[in-house]
Amino acid sequence: MTSPPVSIGEAAAASGVSAKMIRHYEAIGLITDVARTEAGYRIYRERDVHTLRFIRRSRDLGFSIDQMRELLALWQEKGRASADVKRLALDHVETLERKAAALQAMIGTLRHLAESCKGDDRPDCPILDGLAEPGVPTGTPVGRARFGRAGTDPATRETEPGSDDDGT
């Protein structure tokens, strides 16, 4: 027996995806064929909520929008080869391992700088001196290996619609 359709708020509560993000996922085509009432309100069927849970779990594991699109296509294709899914998952594991190694290197650099600082009332500070040195500090990734704005990893948070960061 199938459950009756639910509102966007109920779908959000059941899936763990905010209403704002549900609208965003619909706008970018991750959620398709959402039914509407005569008044134009979105209503979500059981399969829609299930898809939202799938998307939420994928985001929690750090998959990008494009990777989620591919995973959803594989999930919905009953004749898929599990090798395709495994390849995508292992590629993502490699990416996460590279990011984890870069984070560990940054931690080591910052720990070294902090241990060099006396933390007293004097104005000299090895941390600031280390940050002001020419070049890139040891262990700091450059380019796309960096972790988004303000040190956050965009793959582990939901991106607000309208931002230029799609989690990739």
Report on the structure:
With 168 residues, the chain is mostly helical. It folds into 2 domains: 8-76, Multidrug-efflux Transporter Regulator, Chain: A, Domain 2 (Orthogonal Bundle); 92-148, no CATH class. The chain has helices at 8-15, 19-27, 46-60, 65-76, 82-116, 126-132; strands at 35-36, 42-43. It has a two-stranded antiparallel sheet with strand order 1-2. The longest helix is centred in the middle third of the chain and has 35 residues, at 82-116. The chain is elongated, with a radius of gyration of 22 Å. The model is unreliable at 142-168 (pLDDT under 50).
Strand percentage lies at: under 5%
What is the element string, with H for helices and E for strands? Answer: HHEEHHHH
The fold-level CATH name of the largest domain is Multidrug-efflux Transporter Regulator, Chain: A, Domain 2
- Indicate the percent of residues in helices: 40-55%
Please tally the helical runs, counting DSSP H or I stretches of 4 or more residues. Answer: 6
Q: Specify the overall morphology.
A: elongated
Oligomerization: single chain
Q: Which structural class fits the helix and strand makeup?
A: mainly alpha
**If classified by CATH, what would the architecture of the largest domain be?**
Orthogonal Bundle
Please sum up the structure shown.
With 168 residues, the chain is mostly helical.
